[in-house]
Amino acid sequence: MEKRVVFRSAWLPYALVAPQIAITLVFFFWPAVQAVWYSFQLQDAFGLKSQFVGLQNYAALFKDGNYLESFKVTALFSALVAFFGLAISLLLATMADRVLRGAMAYKTLLIWPYAVAPAVAGVLWAFLFAPSIGIVTYVLKGWGINWNWILDGDQAMLLIVIASVWKEISYNFLFFLAGLQSIPKSLIEAAAIDGAGPLRRFWTIVFPLLSPTTFFLLVVNCVYAFFDTFGVIDATTQGGPAQATNILVYKVYHDGVKAADLGGSSAQSVILMFIVIALTVAQFRFVERKVQY
Amino acid sequence: MVENRPWLTVISHGVLILGVLAVAFPLYITFVASTLTLEQIMQVPMQLTPGDKLIENFSQVLSGGSTTGSKAAASSMLVNSLVMALAIPLGKMAISVISAFAIVYFRFPLRMFFFWMIFITLMLPVEVRIIPTYKVVADLGMLNTYAGLTVPLIASATATFLFRQFFMTIPDELAEAARVDGASPMRFFWDVLIPLSKTTMAALFVIQFIYGWNQYLWPLLITTDESMYTTVIGIKRMIVGSDSANEWNLIMATAILAMLPPALVVMLMQKWFVKGLVETEK
To answer: CB-based contact (8 Å) between B222 and chain A?
Structure first.
């Protein structure tokens, strides 16, 4: 797509793109190049000397059991967040699409968690599930469940999944609702006349037609679980107990900022960049397909 | 509605009400906790009806923060959050709208090169280049400043794309007419493009306001001085130890303060919010 009518000026367009390009160069490209550069270097403990070590940092990472474990934790965490986030919001959106009365009120009451910062969502749920004073902990104890996410890795994972899903439902809900409303009513009516019940109609017509939205949300939710949940984790488990919730992004931060391992952390950053690039490409390939739909 | 199935309608309402309750439950508990004394919260189980310490708790956090954790006053943290939440969308829009204008309405060498440079930033979120970016900001002497908090976050490919896409839909005749009438490019920009872009800007503003207000990792790195904490960081800094050592009543009061402004923006500007969400993510 190109404009037919354009303006002419020798200097103006450069002046107009200059601010954005300047910020992009200083705060995006320069740091990214540095991350790649650091990832090939080994620094001594005081940061005084550094030495070029080639791919040694990467090799060390892939030999490091903690790093491989972190991959597994990230995969499990993203899968749980994406699955429950999508399933719950699809259920709610399908119901909201059906009801006539109060649809607007339901929508308003369901979308506000989008406004809650991930870190704040983490604090709220950590309070509800606090091992000694939490109200949910108390109820669980009544059912004979001993709840302590500070000691139990599985429970810690469950906590960050709940907090992350809770925050993401509103976003998925809005997209599913928009997707459902764009499905032609005539298709549903035709199926109803042919005698298909509501469940059958959902699985054979609505769900397949919704698949572009679902795929898009799947990618977005993975990106969310990979990066935006940093706040949830830092405010609650901080990667613990015993690395049970140490997702890749948290590990980059922890190794780089808290443990001051510049080379190792930078190598992790570079690997993460490749993951983001893969996810972004997946997202854009999908956008092209959606145009036909 | 294709057919009338009363029982299904009842189920639908039931599921939706359950959903609303599940979504609202943490908020309600937060609100109750912010109206109690610390002793009342420590009593297991905590009472589920609001107490009478609402005003005490809120005035305490607004003026002096917590007593065991961070002593940063919530009032100054709210100001910092507001600066971030306003500077990021406004800065983003300012630099994106002019660069989109240049890319759409001019032909110049390196045009596509600049376009791709902006595009690639999509793939470099701050989370993957934490330490080098921190170093750049530290070298520029921008730690603990508003500039350090906001400037690195205002470059954005999404906003540029949104404006570019919108400019592409504007009929060529408008630019042609402007040229025939002898208007300069900037005149066309101010008198035609900007007024037409108002809707897009409003939608973008709502989304970016929330983005700016809820920033966490970046201010966590950049602010070490209590006077520069944003509200979200302040909450985290009030949590100092195991769950019984924290002043949860004050933490929860601050959490309410942190949630209120963006939640109000979402609910009151729902139309722009939904539009912004659906359009910026395409």
So the answer is: no
Is the pTM value of this prediction over 0.80? yes
- Distance between CA atoms of A264 and A42, rounded to whole angstroms? 8
| Cβ-nearest to B255 among A106, A124, A230 | A124
- Distances, alpha carbon A78 to alpha carbons A69, A81, A117, A181, A220, in Å: 14, 5, 19, 28, 11
- Residue B46 is given by DSSP the state P
Q: How far is A254 from chain B (nearest CA, A)?
A: 11
Question: CA A10, A15, A18 angle in degrees (round to 5)?
Answer: 135
Residues 6+ apart with CB under 8 A from B117: A21, A24, A29
pLDDT digits (tens, 9 = 90+) for A194-227: 888 888 889 988 998 888 888 888 888 888 888 8
CB nearest B129 (choices: A1, A116, A269)? A269
Among the partner residues A112, A132, A287, nearest to B243 by beta-carbon distance: A132
pLDDT in tens, B22-72: 999 999 999 998 888 887 888 777 788 888 888 888 888 888 777 776 777
> A113: which chain B residues are within 8 Å (Cβ-Cβ)?
23
Residue A112 has pLDDT above 90, yes or no: no
Residue B152 Cα to chain centre, angstroms = 15
Cα(A91)–Cα(A208) distance, rounded to whole angstroms? 15
- CA-CA distance, A191 to B69, in Å (whole number)? 61
Of the candidates B217, B214, B230, the one whose C-alpha atom is nearest the C-alpha of residue B265 is B214
Q: Which residues of A touch B273 (CB under 8 A)?
A: 111, 114
- The number of CA neighbours under 13 Å toward the Cβ of B263 is 18
Q: Residue B96: closest CA among chain A residues belongs to which residue?
A: A20
**B210:A262 CB<8 A:** no
What is the rounded CA–CA span in Å between residue B210 and residue B207? Answer: 5
Question: Quick one: closest CA in A to B231, which residue?
Answer: A120
Q: What residues of chain B lie within 8 A of the CB of A123, using their CB?
A: 235-236, 239, 251, 255
CA A102 from chain centre, in angstroms, equals 30
Which residues partner with A29 through β-bridges? none
Q: Name residue A51's beta-bridge partners.
A: A42
Adjacent-strand bridge partners of A41? A52
Taking only residues 109 to 168 of chain B, the set having a beta carbon closer than 8 angstroms to any beta carbon of chain A reads 111, 114, 117-118, 120-125, 127-137, 151-152, 154-155, 160, 167-168
Give 3-state DSSP helix, strand, coil % of chain A, rounded to 5. 75, 0, 25
Q: What is the ipTM of this complex?
A: 0.87
What is the phi/psi pair of residue B140, to 5°?
-80, 0
Nearest to A167 by CA among A204, A101, A120: A120
The verdict on a CB contact (< 8 Å) between B95 and A269 is no
- Give the list of residues 6+ apart from residue A242 with CB closer than 8 angstroms, or none: A153
CB A206 within 8 A of CB B210: no
pLDDT in tens, A130-176: 888 888 888 888 888 888 888 888 889 999 999 999 999 999 999 99
- Residue B56: which H helix or E strand, with range? helix B54-64
Nearest CA in chain B to A190: B2
